[in-house]
Write the structure tokens for this entry.
Amino acid sequence: MTDYENSNGELNQLGSRYSRQIRFPHIGESGQEKLAQSSALIVGCGALGSVVANTLARAGVGHLRIVDRDFLEQSNLQRQVLFDEADVENGLPKAIAAADKLRRINSEIKIDPIVADVDASNIESLVEGVDVILDGSDNFEIRFLINDVAVKHSIPWIYGGCLGADGQTMTIIPGETACLNCLMLDGPPLPGTTPTCDSFGILAPVINVIASMEANEAIKILSGNRDAVSRKLTAFAMWDNSVSQMDLSKLREQVDCPTCQQNQFQWLSGERGSHSAVLCGRGAVQLSFAERQRIELSELGQRLKEIGQVDVNPYLLRFYIDEFVITVFPDGRAIVSGTEDIAVARKLYAQYLGS
């Protein structure tokens, strides 16, 4: 008799909850038990993260740790499936609102909501004890940080990203597959050089597809089916009705990756990534970067003019959005006026300038 059976060998109430999943031959009762004993970290609980959290909670993953720095806004409801208008009106942090919903969906599992800005100072404590990490973030700086900590501590993680009607995902199993740095040896795109969801928009269906792919890969890992994990980067162009895949099975052998080959964890050590400081008495936060990459202010200004007022000269660009002013310098440094909250400043930078 298992936890899912009664004395007659029939599925009990708990078994009935997961009966369709247990009957899937690659899961069964043993796989379901492994899911119940497993733990997943979801970094970011916005569009991707809310779908992932919803799916894993319903699948019976025993412990979900959900970390998000943000609070809810009305524009989130278009694609962030766990939330409703009451959550927006209550001004709840996303992690807290998600935990409230998930506990009503599945009271048998542990939900651990954490309202925090994930960075190099706290990510190692956040991954402690987890069996898989899922990407629900909105920028590549956090993804490279996840990649560092996952490789260092040999924790599988699943990358996902979406923009417009396009999305892509890949699964990283340290020591077995290529990591994110193998794929992007030059690092993330330079700030301001790529569109963001706020400037280019996003459709909800692609979110659901990519997040479901992420959750499916996590279920494979957590149920003891690592051999079924994809070794490919999968990309969906949903508006064009196309799917493409890039085989990454040999990439790890072909590149000299600083992260998974040389064990250099530059994002985790703080050598790379943003460095933030509150500017006392000015109601502003300065965001600077270890690598002084130049930004073409005129090109950035043309893109940002579609969504807000922009003033630009050869020395700086000022972008006005709501009650904030983001001042960008050619070396990538920025001052976000209108807040002294570093997490808010980082969010605004990621939203409108990209990584």
Q: What stands out?
A: Residues 204-222 form the longest helix (19 residues).
